[in-house]
UniProtKB/TrEMBL annotation:
Gene3D superfamilies: SH3 Domains, Tetratricopeptide repeat domain. The chain crosses the membrane at residues 139-158, 170-189. It holds the Pfam family TPR_16. It comes from Leeuwenhoekiella aestuarii. InterPro entries: SH3-like_bac-type (IPR003646), SH3-like_dom_sf (IPR036028), TPR-like_helical_dom_sf (IPR011990), TPR_rpt (IPR019734). Residues 1-28 form the signal peptide. Residues 198-260 form the SH3b domain. Keywords: Membrane, Signal, TPR repeat, Transmembrane, Transmembrane helix. The keyword Transmembrane applies. TPR repeats lie at residues 31-64, 65-98. This is Tetratricopeptide repeat protein.
Length: 260
């Protein structure tokens, strides 16, 4: 009796797993079909329908640089500035080194009204940021693991090796991989800190008055228009404190922007 009960329990678990896998497979297939339908409609210049299909893919919980990129392209064709910039930014976050995404993002940003000149960076900071942007947080974590494994293997060969030339070569490899691994680990922590502390958003309101305090009766400090990217510093009720690339700060209603 106990054996039959145990077998029945395992059978139920197996059936449940099969059902879950079937549902997941069907859902993934549906998302792929929606994506392909969106591509077909885009090719036929039916951008509104293409947008609906791409958004359904995202609503189903599937996101990729390709979906965001195509969604941005469709909005760009309809001259919708804010959705174009927003979705190109989302695509670039998933593929930070994609030149095509960067170029199209630049085209979309050229449609924005606000001309904001970023604060100048010193040479070291500029190089550091360029190095940091080579990979995402996951990318730097993977590079760190690979380099630490390489260091470990090289050190073992050096330690147990018998030939002098071999020991020297692997000692050099171990030393270099350790140094690069520590640098990669530092960059991974920096990328993690950036993701945690830096929240960015895109202005979706056609025109937004930025205030010096989180209320409508406060003084206007400047005006922004749709498509402008801002950094969110603080939140207070229905307002968010934002900072521009040129250092200007002010409060904006949270309904006027969309977090990236």
């Amino acid at each position: 009796m106990k054996t039959q009960g145990l077998m029945s329990r395992y059978s139920n678990i197996l059936v449940a797993l099969v059902v879950v896998l079937c549902v997941f497979s069907a859902s993934a297939q549906t998302a792929q079909q929606l994506f392909e339908t969106g591509n077909s409609q885009y090719a036929q210049n039916n951008y509104e329908e293409a947008i609906k299909n791409y958004e359904q893919v995202l609503d189903a919980g599937y996101e990729s640089a390709e979906v965001y990129y195509n969604l941005a392209n469709a909005n760009y064709k309809l001259n919708r500035i804010a959705p174009s910039v927003y979705n190109y930014e989302k695509a670039l976050a998933l593929k930070p080194n994609d030149k095509e995404i960067k170029n199209n993002l630049q085209f979309a940003q050229n449609m924005t009204v606000d001309a904001i000149t970023p604060l100048p960076e010193n040479t070291f900071k500029k190089w550091w940021n360029q190095l940091l942007n080579l990979f995402t947080l996951d990318g730097w974590a993977l590079v760190t693991v690979v380099l630490i494994v390489l260091f470990t293997l090289s050190f073992l060969v050096y330690y147990f090796g018998s030939k002098t030339v071999l020991k020297r070569s692997f000692f050099t490899i171990a030393f270099v991989s350790l140094g690069l691994g520590l640098l990669s680990l530092t960059l991974a922590f920096q990328a993690r800190s950036n993701e945690k502390n830096k929240r960015f958003a895109v202005v979706f309101s056609p025109e937004a008055e930025i205030k010096n305090a989180p209320n409508m009766g406060s003084e206007e400090v400047f005006v922004l228009h749709e498509g402008t990217k801002v950094r969110v510093i603080e939140e207070q009720g229905d307002w968010q404190l934002i900072r521009l690339a040129d250092g200007q700060e002010g409060w904006i209603p949270k309904t006027y922007i969309k977090l990236l």
